[in-house]
Amino acid sequence: MFPSNFAWGAATAAYQIEGGWDSDGKGPSIWDTFCHKGGGLVFEDHSGDVACNSYEFWEEDLKCIRQLGLTHYRLSLSWSRLLPDGTTKHVNQKGVRYYNKVIDDLLASNVIPMVTLYHFDLPQALQDRGGWKSPEMADIFDSYARFAFQTFGDRVKLWLTINEPYICAKLGHEDGIFAPGVKEPGMAAYLVGHNMLRAHARAWHSYHSLYRAEQGGAVSLAINSNWAEPENPTSPEDRAATERYLAFSLGWFAWPVFVTGDYPEVMRSRVELRSKGLSCQGCRLPVFSKSEPTILGTADFFALNYYTSRMVKPMSDLPQVSGFRGDRDAEEIVDPSWPVCGASWLAVVPDGLRKLLNYIKNTFNNPAVYITENGFSQVGPVNMDDVPRSRFYQDAIQEVARAIQEDGVDVRGYFAWSLLDNFEWADGFSVRFGLFHVDFSQPERKRSIYLSGREYAGIISKYRALTGTNNSQ
After folding, report:
1. How far apart are the first and last CA of the chain?
2. How far is CA 236 from the centre of its chain?
3. DSSP state of 163
4. Structure confidence by residue, pLDDT tens digits, 403-423
5. What are the catalytic residues?
6. pTM across the whole model
7. How far apart are CA 330 and CA 450, in angstroms?
8. Which domains does the chain have, with CATH numbers?
9. Which of 37, 168, 327, 383 is the most interior residue, by most CB within 10 Å?
10. Measuring CA to CA, how many Å separate 407 from each of 68, 230, 233, 361?
């Protein structure tokens, strides 16, 4: 049984669904720039220029939301649609009207919005000023956040500042396979992650001091993490490597917010050990300044994006600093030994979610948890009768129920990724996570419900009926 006020949701992100990339005064984002470069950076040079065209077809999305019977819907704001140059010097009122309509329509349908301020799509104008590598981004983001709280906070009560800072930092600034396409191994990712944490903390403090009393909302950041297990559970070396793996992924952003206000000790010590010879302290993994707003305690709930699990063992061939990659500071090798379905990185391990929820409970002082993304992809020919994905949702939600009932984890909600097939970043439209299929070959972008969507709607209806919270959606 789930709590009567449990959030049953689905999630999307602005660049992945909206389209209208230059419509009605919107400024370009780093993903517009990245995709328009061409040259194979994105699968078959796909882009989000049109995507699901939710900017024009929002009412079609709303029909999908109502058909599922969702209680909550997670969306992100396009920063550059609202503030074309990234600053509050120029507000695009057409962008404001669009999101006002979305929020108002959701509330009129008895659906509670969860709004993400930043989901990978930095205004290009800010990237031109240094982007997330620049320390000034903390203040700029705080100004944007205050604008959003002031503009929409009378109706939005669940906020996420930044989605998956790990992905932004590593894939965008170390591997270079996500926008902005920076490749600075072992250096830029830590700096970007640091500035994102600073930006999040400032926005949280602004909400807490200026808006919370009147608006009564809650603010967090969405942290992605795999579950990890030692390849050999009896090996002390494998267990230690697994702890390092979790410290360098989940702990990187959760530890400063929920535990100490600083990075995990094993993370800092490993990075500093491998930075010897660079003649500077904190030149790779920065140090939080005592003069800045504290990071610790700047989350009103734990927002978790979970997709897959990994088995871990120690890495044997540590490179020297002259050739290091930041992802190897953890000294681990990841071996996906579970069945893989859909996207090549996605090993299907529903019970890993329950294990990760227990780890969060025990490591981060039993916080309230929203699972803000969880999903299963489809590749190749479209199959509307997606039985494996339907089974995945049944299994994953059952694991969440067990975590609540048997383990005492305080899970407040579950958001499926995603409402719609959409632009899946470097994979373009070749990977589909939607509960609704979108026909990208036609201008009207017709939405059609998958079997998994019908099954998810049935699960929601069943549990809402059991708790007496069904309505006539």
Report:
1. 21
2. 32
3. E
4. 999 999 999 999 999 999 999
5. 164, 373
6. 0.96
7. 40
8. 7-466 (3.20.20.80)
9. 168
10. 28, 22, 22, 9
